[in-house]
Design goal:
The chain is an alpha/beta fold and 215 residues long. The chain has one domain: Rossmann fold (3-Layer(aba) Sandwich), CATH 3.40.50. Helix content is 35%, strand content 18%. It has a six-stranded mixed β-sheet, with helices on both faces. The chain has a two-stranded antiparallel ribbon with strand order 5-6. The N and C termini lie far apart (40 Å). Belongs to the ComF/GntX family. GO terms for molecular function: glycosyltransferase activity. This is Putative amidophosphoribosyltransferase.
Length: 215
Amino acid sequence: MLDLVLPLECGGCGARSTRWCGACAGELTVKPDEPHLISPRLEPGVPVFSLGRYAGARREAILAFKERGRADLVDPLAAALRVGLARLLDWGVLEEPLTVVPAPTRRWAARRRGGDPVARLALAATDGHRDITVVQAVRTRALVADSVGLSSADRQRNIAGRVKIVRPLEGRHGAACEVLVVDDIVTTGATACETVRVLRAAGATVIAVLALANA
């Protein structure tokens, strides 16, 4: 009866009577050789890692979380991100202590979505790690357009000069801060490029970028 009033639907495939089915959970499972190193069209100058293609259950879950308010999908998405982060630590790509910086979100988009979705995932994925700190250090300035449908060159022009530092970054004892940039989707790499640029200009040592998906 409750399902008739408030129907449950899998955030990955739309199957009824469950919020997250076993098949979709399998698609999001991080394999032993993941995350993969990818080569976006615009290279940010640091390694860019992705947990999988922006397709299937991964794509639908990210969209449902960001655009349709499916807060119940934080857990599976953050769990995948947590494993990806652990792998990069195990492989020696990253070292603790570490600062995780969520990629910038437009302020009006964050308000519409009830908060910054990338920051929320980063906080959930690092919960319990004493030597990993999440800092919402960057934000986009006004007049950044929606990048959907833009070419690589247009995306780069759209974001150039429009990412700003809003919180200082500093490692222990005033040393340069080692940073991992986390994003939900890497498409052309334009946002990653600009984010890495402004963080470096602020004195941070950016080690890598890690995304839930790449398109």
